[in-house]
Design brief:
This protein is 19% helix and 32% strand. A twelve-stranded antiparallel β-barrel has the order 1-2-3-4-5-6-7-8-9-10-11-12. It has six helices and twelve strands. α2 packs across α6.
Length: 273
C-alpha cells in the first residue's frame, strides 16, 4: 500500500507510538517552529482532556455580534492553558450570512493563568476561515490552521456537505486528503432539548487510506449550560469538552482543540443561525 503523503516517509521528532495520521501531523511541524508553538505542543503532550469555554462579556448580550473569546483549560484540573481571541471585522460578523461568514482567531499562551486579555502571552496558532459563497456542496466552509509567526501550515478543517449529519473533516496539511472525520448525528435528543448538562456527542473517527475505518479515537462533546438557554441568568456559556482518547501526538491534539472551536462557530454560534 502506498503512503498517503510524503510525511509518512519522514522520521519522527522523538520516539513515540502514534498512528499514521498522528505521524503526519507531528512531522509537518518539523523545522522553523516558534518557541511559543513548541511550548504549546509540550503543554498539550501532557493533557488527556481539554475544556474549551467561551468567555462571556456583558456586551455579548446585546443584539450585535462581537468578537468571541475562548479560554482553553485542562479538562481534569481546570488549569488555564490558552486564550483564543477572534479578530474578525464588524462587517464580517454582522453582514454576512450563515456558512458564508469569514472569521479569524489567534491562540496564545497563558503563562500566569487567565486575568483578562492583557494576561495573554505569545501567540502560537492562527485559525483562518475565509469568506466563501457556500451553497450545498459548493465552496464548503474550511478553516486553515497555521503556526504563528512563521505561517507554516498545521492542518485544514473542512465542513463537508452531508445530509442529516454535523460533520467536520481534518485534512493532511500537504495532500489535503481526509485524515480524521468528526461525525455528529442529528438524531441526538440533546440537539432538540438543550437542557443544562446535556451533551451533543461528536466522535472522532480515523480515516483509512482507501476507506473509512470507522475506529473512534477521540471525542468532542458540546455541553449545554444555563447560559446557552438564558444568557441573563448565568455566567456559564458555550462549552466544549475534548477527550483525546487514544491520541498521543500534540499536533493532532492542537487540531482537535481547533475543531471544537470550528464546530461551535459552524453549528452553535448565534451568527450561524
Amino acid at each position: 500500500m502506498e503512503p498517503r503523503s510524503t510525511f509518512h516517509q519522514m522520521e519522527p521528532m522523538e520516539p513515540m507510538e502514534v498512528s499514521a495520521p498522528d505521524q503526519i501531523l507531528m512531522n509537518s511541524a518539523v523545522g522553523g517552529s516558534s518557541a511559543a508553538f513548541i511550548k504549546a505542543k509540550k503543554i498539550l503532550s501532557q493533557q488527556d482532556a481539554l475544556k474549551v469555554q467561551q468567555i462571556r462579556r456583558k456586551r455579548d448580550m446585546c443584539s450585535l455580534d462581537f468578537n468571541n473569546w475562548y479560554l482553553v483549560k485542562d479538562g481534569n484540573t481546570g488549569k488555564d492553558l490558552f486564550f483564543v481571541q477572534e479578530n474578525s471585522t464588524c462587517m464580517e460578523r454582522n453582514c454576512c450570512s450563515g456558512e458564508c461568514k469569514a472569521w479569524r482567531m489567534e491562540a496564545s499562551l497563558l503563562p500566569n493563568g487567565w486575568q483578562g486579555p492583557e494576561s495573554a502571552g505569545a501567540p502560537f496558532l492562527h485559525l483562518e476561515r475565509p469568506f466563501s459563497l457556500t451553497c450545498c456542496c459548493i465552496n464548503r466552509p474550511k478553516v486553515i490552521a497555521t503556526e504563528v509567526p512563521g505561517g507554516q501550515n498545521v492542518g485544514t478543517l473542512t465542513d463537508p456537505f452531508a445530509c442529516c449529519k454535523l460533520n467536520t473533516t481534518v485534512q493532511d496539511p500537504e495532500s489535503l486528503k481526509p485524515v480524521y472525520s468528526v461525525d455528529g448525528s442529528i438524531c441526538q435528543p440533546s440537539l432538540f432539548c438543550p437542557f443544562p448538562g446535556m451533551k451533543v456527542d461528536f466522535p472522532v473517527k480515523e480515516v483509512a487510506v482507501t476507506q473509512w475505518s470507522g475506529q473512534t479515537v477521540a471525542r468532542l462533546h458540546k455541553v449545554w449550560t444555563l447560559g446557552d438557554c438564558c444568557p441573563c441568568c448565568s455566567k456559564e456559556w458555550s462549552s466544549f469538552d475534548v477527550d483525546f482518547g487514544d491520541v498521543r501526538n500534540p499536533g493532532f491534539k492542537l487540531l482537535l482543540m481547533s475543531t471544537a472551536i470550528f464546530v461551535q462557530m459552524a453549528f452553535f454560534d448565534k451568527r450561524a443561525q
